[in-house]
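FORM 12-B: Structure-to-Sequence Request
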């Protein structure tokens, strides 16, 4: 698909990986609607990205709000690309604590609701729009979802986050098969440790330790590393149904 002249929806685009992706899409001549729950960050992002960007306040688990974000993206041009970055961290809960109390069910459900249900909500609502496009270069549209390396090597305390992200990975091939008849491709990025505001809150020595744990290159992932892969996934016509780890060969230890 051609990004140039098309419109894209980037969820979670007010910050981190989504913001870097919005910037790269605009750099290639696309227009972007950022859908995010943070109005403050969304406003700043649009001021930074300029004319080609719009912000719509939308919770990705909300059908009406995502519908409005898709409406706004279709007003900007032909919506051909969706990059779904919105998500939250886990609840850092052990399955049982030191006193043998079982972990909270409500926080587990909330992580899965935002990360997995939110992904399916965006996937289904966006697919319904992309399916109405004319085919250009073989595709009506393309989508990129966001999992995590935790989908494959989740750490202790990450049951909810891992379950939600493994769900996104599992959904990817099914979605690609399901939407193949509509000429819509779906791929997923599983990032390692990326230098986004999520991580910026950590102490400097902890950040340095994390960077040193990456085999090569020995640094945290740059949000633009993610954006480059997202753009490649949108543009490469033969890339479909795939989850790609973006992690500098990192494999997470149990803790
Ligand atoms: N940063 C990392 O190391 C890392 C690693 C693996 C996976 N990820 C995943 O990448 C994605 C982006 O993370 P990031 O590091 O850019 O974080 P970030 O906090 O910088 O950005 C996430 C954005 O999503 C928005 N958001 C959260 N919940 C939302 C909701 N329900 N509806 C709409 N918007 C919502 C936030 O407001 C924020 O702007 C997340 O899915 C995260 O799980 C990040």
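FORM 12-B RESPONSE
SEQUENCE OUT:
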């Amino acid at each position: 698909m051609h990004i140039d002249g098309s419109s894209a929806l980037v969820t979670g685009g007010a910050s981190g990986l989504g913001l870097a992706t919005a910037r790269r899409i605009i750099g290639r001549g696309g227009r972007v609607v950022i859908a995010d729950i943070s109005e403050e960050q969304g406003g700043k992002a649009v001021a930074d990205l300029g004319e080609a960007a719009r912000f719509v306040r939308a919770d990705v688990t909300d059908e009406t709000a995502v519908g409005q974000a898709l409406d706004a993206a279709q007003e900007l041009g032909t919506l051909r690309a969706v990059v779904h970055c919105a998500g939250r961290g886990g609840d850092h809960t052990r399955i049982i604590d030191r006193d043998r109390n079982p972990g909270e069910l409500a926080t587990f459900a909330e992580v899965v609701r935002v990360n997995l249900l939110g992904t399916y909500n965006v996937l289904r609502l966006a697919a319904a729009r992309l399916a109405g496009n004319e085919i250009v270069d073989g595709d009506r549209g393309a989508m990129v979802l966001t999992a995590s390396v935790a989908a494959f090597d989740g750490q202790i305390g990450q049951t909810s986050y891992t379950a939600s992200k493994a769900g996104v990975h599992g959904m990817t091939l099914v979605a690609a098969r399901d939407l193949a008849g509509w000429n819509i491709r779906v791929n997923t990025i599983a990032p390692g440790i990326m230098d986004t505001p999520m991580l910026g809150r950590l102490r400097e020595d902890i950040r340095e330790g994390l960077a040193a744990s990456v085999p090569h290159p020995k640094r945290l992932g740059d949000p633009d590393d993610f954006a480059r892969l997202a753009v490649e996934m949108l543009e490469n016509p033969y890339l479909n149904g795939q989850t790609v780890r973006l992690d500098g060969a990192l494999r997470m230890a149990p803790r």
